[in-house]
Amino acid sequence: MVVQGIDSESAAAAAAKRGxxxxxxxxxxxxxxxxxxxxxxxxxxxxxxxxxxVRELAIALQDLSHV
Length: 67
Fold this sequence. Notes:
The chain is mainly alpha-helical. Helix content is 43%, strand content 6%.
């Protein structure tokens, strides 16, 4: 999903406020810029938790896109 005008650090902060913890991939960069993106980990979660996380992430991104 690409949401124009939202940087990955802002997206991660907004998601964290809704209980979803993500890592902006730019944090892995050493000296060169990476494209905007988020790393999502979900291996330890059940289907219900994943659905809730996706729903909360969508709300967080939607809220940011309306600012």
